[in-house]
Each structure stands twice: as C-alpha cells, then as structure tokens.
Amino acid sequence: MRFDVATSVGVLASCWMTGVEAFWRMNCGIAQIGRVDPVVNPNAISGHVHLLSGASNINTTSTFQSLTAASCTSCSIQKDKSAYWTPLLYYQRGDGSFINVPNDGTVVYYLGRGEDRRNIVPFPPGFQVVSGDPSRRSYDNETMTYSTGRYRSRPVADRVSFACINYAQATPETPYMANTNCPNGLRAQIQFPSCWDGVNLYKADQSHVAYMSQIDNGVCPPTHPKLLPHLFYEIYYFPNRIDTSDGGRFVFSNGDTTGYGFHGDFLNAWDTQVLTDAIAACINDVESGNISECPPLAASQDDYFGTNCPEQAPLVNEQVRGVLSKLPGCNEVTSGPARAPQGVCPTQPNLNPVTNTDGQTRPVPVAGTTTATISSGSVAQYKGCYVDNTGGRALSGASYANDSMSTSICGAYCQSKGFSVFGTEYGRECFCGSAISSASAPQSECPMVCAGARTEYCGGPNRLSVWTVTSTPSSTSSAVASPSSTPTGPSINGASYLGCWSDAGGSRTLSGSYTTDSKMTLELCARTAQSANYKYFGLEYAGECFAGNSIRESASQLSSSGCNMKCKGNDTQICGGPGALSLFQNTGFIQPGNPALVNISAQNAQPY
C-alpha cells in the first residue's frame, strides 16, 4: 500500500487520542469489490457496492465459520480472517456517467479505549456490527451517546469523519465530505460502537451495541456493560487523480454526495485465542501501534499480504469499476438534507462461479528435502532461499516473468533452455542457470507466494527460491519439455490440449469470438476457431466455445478437476466447467515468424 502510515498515525493521534494510548494498526488490501454485504443482506445481492477487505472467501453467505476456513486474508495479520467493508467512492462525470475513484486500501485500528479498558473482552465468534447510517444526507445533532454527570455525551453522527490530506497545509477533519481537492488523498473514517450487551451477537437495529460516551473514549451505558476493542477504519481515496474539469461530483456507491451516509461493517472471524492474547498483551501497552511489537500478532504477520492474498475475482456478475452509465444497483444520487432509503431493484444479477480454496495451506519448503514435479515430468529438489542481485544476477542463464508463475512453470521453462538450476523471485519472476553461487538466506526472506500457484512460495525481494532438477523422466525422446508442453488430455486433429484454465475474472480469457451450441463438441469448437484462424480456443459450461489470439494475462492453469462438464453434443467428451476452460491451441494457426506457446512467448518474457 502506498499511503504514508506515519502521517496516518500522526493525524489520528492529533484528532482522536487524548494523551498516549495503546493500539495496534493493521493494513489491509482489497479482497473483493462488489454488491456483497453478508451482514445487512445475507444470502442476497447488496443494495450498493462495497470495498471489502479480509478473508479471501468473503461472499453473500459469510459467517464466522466460513471466514475462518479461508485460505488467506488480505490483511497483514493472517490469524484474523474477519471481514471489513465500506461503500465505494465514485465520481459522477458531467455527462452523468460514473467512474470509481482510485483507492489504496483500508487501515484497521484496534484501540484500547474507555475507562474500563483493562477489562476489554474479545469479539465473540459470530459477532457482527454496522456503524453509520447509509440513508443519512445531513448531520444528526439530536441522537446522542450515553452520558452521566461526569461523562458528557456527543452526537452519534461524529462517528463519521473525513480528512482531506494536504502535507503543505493541514485542514481540520469534518463529519461530511467537505473538500475533495486533496493533494495527498482523501481519508474516509468510521468509528465503531465498543459497548456490547454481552448477549446478542447481532441485531439488525444495532441495539446489541452502543457507543462509549465520547464514541472513541469514555464509559459504556449500564445496558451494554461489556467493553470490546475499539474499532476505527481509515479508507484512502485519491480524488485528485480524477479529471474533474467537467464539473462533476463525488458520490458514494449508495448515492450519497454528502458523506453523512458513510458507514462500515465488521464480521468477526478472529482466531479467538490470538485475539485474547493480543488484548491481554498489547491493546493497552503497545503505544506505537506496530504489530511487530505484539508477539501474539507478529507470529502471523505477513508483510506481503497484498501480493500473497490478492483481490479475488468478482462474486457478483456486474461491472462495478471503470466507466459506468449508472451506479450499480438502484441508487439515485442525492444530496439531502432528507434521508434517502436504499433503493431495491426488481431484478438482480447472478453470482459468478467461485473456485473453492478454503482450507488451502502453504507448506514451507525445506532445503534438501522438499521436491516438486514440474510439467516436463522431471523432479526438482529445493535448495533453499538465496540472495540475488548483489552486483549481478545469481542465475543469469535465462529469465522471464508472468502472472501465472509457479515452481513447475519456471522449472520447465529453464529446462527448455538447457538449464537444470532455476529460481523464482518476487512471486512472478523466473531465473535459470547451471549453478547457484550466491549466499543463502533464511527461509523467512522468501515469503512471497507464486502468482500462479497460491500454495507455493516464489522468493521475495532480491531473494530466490532455488531448485535443482535431480531426475528426468525415462522417455524414448531426449527432447526437454517446455512450460507449454501439452498436458495429458483429449486429442483433436489440428490442435494441442493446453489444460484446464481459469475464466472467472472480469474479462474473458479468450476474447476473440464466442459461440454456443446445444450440440457442442470439441470438434465443433475446433472447426469454428480454425476456420477463422484463431490461435487458441476453449470450451466452457458444456456448450460454450471461445476463441482468440491471446490468453488474458491474469488467467491461470487449474487442476484438471475444474473442467468436469460433459459436452452437450458428446457425453464422452469434457467441455470445461463453471468458470473453467478446456483450452486448446490451433496448431494450424498462420502467423508471420515463429510464434511460441502460451505464457512463454517473447512478448511475455520480461527480464528483470
């Protein structure tokens, strides 16, 4: 994430903290963007678009149990699989169209606040909460927090605030979106209620929780005696990256131009013991906010959370980014002061198929012990984590990079170049050589997950995960296989099978042509592609045929089990699956020069 955390902490301290108080701060990348809200709209499409962070499997049916099974989280503490979300900010152009505002993620604070802070209790499993009112379009100066003779109350509306960041000239925070000309970013902020009734995990009217008397400090009402960690979100936007010369306006996804309707949701999925230990050891004692200074949290800290657990493919089948003719859903743009209830659409989009990665783990490779079978059939042994790029490349024989990188792909590529030693770096780079002579490094310095294989590690910054080919398959052929070697699979005249590939992102893996037929077969799709001289073709959902001359860069090879649907026209053949293509290359494709196969082409080769 690119924002300045030090500045963030400084502003937070000056505006909310009274004296030195302890907290921890967790950076979060994006897990999902879409009309998903399992708290307010469980098992349904949400009324408006949200920016979601946290567990990789966030969906419309999420619960504590489902989130804790996620393979990873887009936040830095991997023992926290909770979900955090807020509405997405758009810009409405002068012509009425909309475009999403660049966003740089969310920062979540867990603060030790309140007079009873030494008795803070962890969020219980299943706890959910919403802060803010999406329908508000004006300041509510009547609804107040709890007060006593000693502790003053405060308007609940103060839970929302906006900071227009200008390093050259500081400006005060406001409870509405007062200024969007922000040279260093616009920060939307939301405070959560910290007082719990101790009984109910969730009530739709939020009566299971209450705010402290000063929202971020003070005392709880006697009806809500249990004090929880105080949650505070910061969401960073960059409105100055948008061309506003057409006189448009900024608006949140719920149609709110004021900011009074800003809100946030939290669905707890912490490892309860870790959260309990962190509260006991850190929430009242770590004044820097650094996770590294809190042992229960540092044990699962991932500095590469944004890379290792990237944004997931859209769950809802609709466009929510780029230029839009209207806000997704049925959200009229309003500026108040009257309330604006959430619009309800008569029809809703479908959900996209999702690959289930729950329970996936990433075994840490052990030098001299861990082996891997690469796509050529050869076996490679892990040598360890090695230093790279100190005066020259540690492996300088050949190199390339792509967003489908894995140990197998890198190994096969290097074999095809005649090298037996290979290493992966930065999650997506591959280097080859005859020997590794640089210094070894601790395994912890190779923490980045492979871009194309989320259960494997592919080095780190200036660090190589190095492997050596130790055996090759016995074969009547002495040819060395390349990453584009044809996997075992169906045979079609004039085509080679490339395997089962993903097709569940925001754009198609093959975008040249599309046909569907109730009698679809492999041969029918092949003829369609070959007659139009397309380089690749693929079949999906039993009856769909796609073709194109390039494969979308973010597409990746799946397990063969992902392609499991029988062709509508021949039940002895497989025609892809949900969000999965049975992918082929047209061997009769005519192109000047010497075209290479998918993912290993010269145009994809990017020396570091």
From TrEMBL:
Pfam families: DUF1996, WSC
InterPro entries: DUF1996, WSC_carb-bd
Annotated signal peptide: 1-22
PROSITE patterns the UniProt entry points to: PROKAR_LIPOPROTEIN (PS51257), WSC (PS51212)
Keywords, alphabetical: Signal
Source species taxonomy: Eukaryota, Fungi, Dikarya, Ascomycota, Pezizomycotina
Name of protein: WSC domain-containing protein
Keyword Glycoprotein: no
Polar residues bias (residue ranges): 345-360
Region Disordered, annotated ranges: 338-364
Domain WSC: 379-470, 494-587
